[in-house]
Structure prediction request, 979 residues.
Amino acid sequence: MSEPRKLLKGATGDWEVVVGLEVHAQVSSVSKLFSGASTTYGAGPNENVSLVDAAMPGMLPVINEFCVEQAVRTGLGLNAEINKWSRFDRKNYFYPDLPQGYQISQYKDPIVGEGEIEVELDDGSTVMIGIERLHLEQDAGKSIHDLAPDASYVDLNRSGVALMEIVSKPDMRSAEEGAAYFSKLRTILRYLGTCDGNMDQGSMRADVNVSVRRPGEALGTRTETKNVNSIRFVRQVIDYEARRQIEVLEEGGTIDQETRLFDVKTGETRTMRSKEDAHDYRYFPDPDLLPLELPDDLIERVRASLPELPDQKKHRFMDDLGLSAYDASVLAMDKDKADYFEAVAEGHDGKLAANWVTTELFGVLNKQGLTIKESPVSAAQLGKLVGLIEDKTISGKIAKQVFEHMLTDDQGKDPADIVEARGLKQVTDTGAIESAVDEVIAANPDQVERVKEKPKALGWFVGQVMKATGGKANPQAVNEILRAKLGVE
Amino acid sequence: MTDIPELTLAKLRDALRAKDVSAAEAAEAYLDRAEGASALNAFLRIDRERTMAAAKASDEKLARGEGGALEGVPLGIKDLFCTKDVETTAASRILQSFVPPYESTVTANLARDGAVSLGKLNLDEFAMGSSNETSAYGPVINPWRRTGKDDKLSPGGSSGGSSAAVAAHLCAGATATDTGGSIRQPAALTGTVGVKPTYGRCSRWGIVAFASSLDQAGPIARHVRDSAILLRSMAGHDPKDSTSINAPVPDFEAVLDRGVKGLKIGIPEEYRLDGMPEEIEALWRQGEAWLRDAGAEVREVSLPLTKYALPVYYIVAPAEASSNLARYDGVKYGMRIEDRDIQEMYAKTRAEGFGAEVQRRILIGTYVLSAGYYDAYYLRAQKVRKKIADEMNAVFEDVDLLLTPSAPSAAFGLGEKTDDPIQMYLNDVFTVTANLAGNPGISVPAGLDGQGLPLGLQLLARPMDEETMFRGAYALEQAAGFTARPGQWW
Prediction:
């Protein structure tokens, strides 16, 4: 057993929190897992319901091969073992939004086995988190209880939609790690295109398992908090549950193995049902479906079509483009940002491009509350601006001015045209710079004397020359000429 | 004028094609008979208007020289097959007034080939039963009576409406389903031919499910040829059923007269049960002799696991049924007993909606799947099922067909076995193995017992080898020359 990474202080000593996540991710697919009904979000109630989804008598499920491929793709993206033989089981329970009276899921033989992903933490360090399994299952419909005082309504649009349940190993040791894992998982799924990760639409949600123990001791009793649908809430649930459990244990109590609900308003969890009330789901293999056997060529075809994944991208940004681990991570962990950055960096210096994207652009986007896709400056434009700095058409300082114009009164314009139109072109003509230098030297004899004793005062002259040239003089040229004329080494 | 209900299905088909009779005449003749036989309670619904409209459409096709393999042939449809815009109840209160907006693949295939539906046939509730007495709409009465007696007999089950209607010439043929023997046992008890094809030969799509891994549709008809004609139209790959087999459907009728010369017929010694009526044993020997005389080689074979088939069946089938019937919860369609509490609504609806036998099987199924019992019952049963299938396949390496009795007794009286489920379950003792292993089987009427009731012999074949099965069945039929029929007392 590894050394405890992170400990929580209790009243009676240190505690270690142990976290595992079961993440339900909706498979990006046009139709449902076992029927041809559409999965479009936002349709009217019960518009996307086939006879199969409504569990009409005699209806039979037929597996959606695309959903199977998406699960394989996800498995490969999680560096996990693909099970060539898997099987669907029925999980039996009664609920009005479960028309069949059972959910078709994979219980004993999931399509994907063990895997592992690298998760970035706030301090730039990484931890490896194990994946226990991934299986395919049907989503249930939705019960709506607040439309009428004396009735409940059922919307079956989600009934039968394909979900991937991705179960982690209990490898996380803090709220930060739990949230970071959830976030990284989302990044990978979005990269793979197997889940859109839209948590506000219910495309991704987590059941959060939390237990605490004294360092070095066996695992404690865990609670499972259901349907947590944001990264922030995952963090809150773990924090709350860890604190609550420590408190209970320190007061001599015991933790009940139970299912809990998270209250978004209070940030607290509360009991939903205890172990005694747990359903007996009577799992058994679904006799309507044959075992799922994956041919090698399917797996290989999916493998060959995998995109570059965030970790690969991150390391390429570091190794090939010379980005810092931090910048590489920030850019690679969001596919849209990575795509934008790569477009900016195309043909330019990677580090310079990364600086402009992460500092200047992200600063603006953050301030304006915009996503990268809503950026007022296109990647092509920003790339051109970087190019103007590289070929010394403008200085970095002037570039910031140009960038400012690109965001405001010159939106959509080519940076080169802005530079031209506004006369911001850098002066590299040494004659022009020399005369400016001569003027400054002539006008400031006292300073000339000073600089001879104190070479650092050269900066003052540079500033004066830049001021005289409206900032357009090439700073390097100004420096060289000044040094020569003032005799400063 | 031709007495249409007296024609075999094959002859009626030919007469329709030759325009010797019209589809409308055929439909009318059968409708009259069906409507006049309400004492048998074989039909749950007859829709004269709908039938006549379909028959007229068939006549138009036939007039144009078009028309499918069954154009204009009137059939009865077991009420387990969903029929578009026609009430489909599975003989259960819980599906009362349920009108499917879709047509089962098997009945759609029949309609594609021009068959005309006369209406829906009674059955045991959700096909659970061997006597048709579990129907929520009353038992079906066997048209056969013991010589000189008038006590009511069961037509077998669950396809008792199908077997009785065919035996009484209320339809030219009927659809049926077989989960543990529900086609072959009622066929045996009514002097008709019943075919359970290979699992996967007929699509299950649109058939109200009982036990998915065992359910198979098949025909009941008066003659082997008629059943071969019907099966060809019913069968075929269906992408909507994942367990449907993707293989061409042979012309079963074309192989009938190829004979059995050189075929190896196995007689499984384990099918010789203690206390089995002597007449059944004797008929079995007779069947052996007929096939041997026709040129087949008969040999004893052993299937030692046979005795486990029934117990395995009564774990697997209820387990699947308990889950398949969960959808009848009063929420979406069918019956609902209102209650403000959802659990109460479920409980009341299912308590009122399901009959005693269905409830018994749901309870058994729920029990064998529940935590702590799954391994001992369901899992073990599945393992034994696999061994039974392996044993069966091994025997079929040595023989082409197995010959057995179809049922352990002739038709029995209504109420005679209803108090003892085990006695009732024993009806399936000869048939259930084919369901567990997936093999095709056929029951052929072969003789009468001392009380004048029909007895059947069963032939089992390799999976997907219905052709050899039909050859054997046709040879048996020819040799038996079974022409007895029930007197019309209704």
User: Anything to note?
Assistant: Chain A has three domains: 8-301, 308-421, 430-486. Chain A touches chain B at residues 51, 54-63, 90, 92, 94, 96, 99-102, 150, 152, 154, 280, 282-284, 287-290 (CB under 8 Å). Chain A has a mean pLDDT of 93. Residues 231-250 of chain A form the longest helix (20 residues).
